């Protein structure tokens, strides 16, 4: 994934509607919660209200919805009517889950919906819906306040936005600072946006926003730790962001972060072993099981590896099949392959 141009260059191209900028970046407008192509003909916003994204998925994960005028998610081929209907469904109920049962109730055949959405956008319908839910719940709560965020996201009532927040984070925005909390920030990377959660004990979660199961993990953490998740800065998140930047730049091979993952005793044992796998090398699930005192329990070691929600820092991407095949990575096999290739420099 190529890096973004400088902010100055992107802003200049956007304000000029430069056609050569098409495909190089997308533009988010903070005041409306909409993201556009760089050539969008709508009225240009103030520069301080603009942010930039490497792809549409990153914009979705940050809480922005596609512009209806320039249609940034549509290629030269117009999307099928079914795809447009699916996107409309998400905007009608952006805070709820839309599974096969809900699609069938709307007269939409689930397998056809999945196939057409994947073919047109290169991402699954469920990944799109997850990105919208997570982005809406995280975006700008503390910076802009509840009311401003509500209207920027297009909710007609305060209850709509509050429901989005509470469903994932457990307490209304106005009450989120009361009681125990985990602080959350979005951390951009060349592979997509990471969601970082931290307490004073350390980094609790660091994973891709579009990872399947992340919402369930957040809900489980809320109940187990009896806390809310609050968008906001924390020193552990600041340190994680800085070290990740160095890692992706190729200047840092090891992380020095205080971690506080939540899991079983066996999972902690597996995660500790993962942290000792040198960058540039891999370990099979079978050997991992042997190393943690459970020879022959490759599946158990694999399940514990899959329960790791501190990606990259606890490098579960370095575990492979016995034949070297890339399997079992929550962030997707494409990202796993990229990370292993990136780390070859330290072999």
Give a description of the structure:
- The chain has 347 residues and is of the alpha/beta class.
- The chain is built from 14 helices and 10 strands.
- Strand 6 (194-199) and strand 7 form a beta hairpin.
- Helix 6 (125-138) crosses helix 8 and helix 7 (141-152) packs across helix 8 (158-169).
- Residues 140-161 have low confidence and may be disordered.
- Shape call: globular
Radius of gyration computed on alpha carbons = 21 Å
- The low-confidence runs, each spanning 5 or more residues with pLDDT under 50, are 140-161
**Rounded average pLDDT:** 83
Number of helices: 14
Largest sheet: 4 strands, mixed
Helical fraction equals 40-55%
Characterize the quaternary organization of these chains: single chain
Task: Give the class from helix and strand content and strand pairing.
Answer: alpha/beta
- Care to count the β-strands? 10
What's the order of the H and E elements?
HEEEHEHHHHHHEEEHEHHEHHEH
Distance between the termini: 22 Å
Question: Which strands sit side by side, in order, in the main sheet?
Answer: 3-1-2-4
Residue fraction in strands: 5-15%
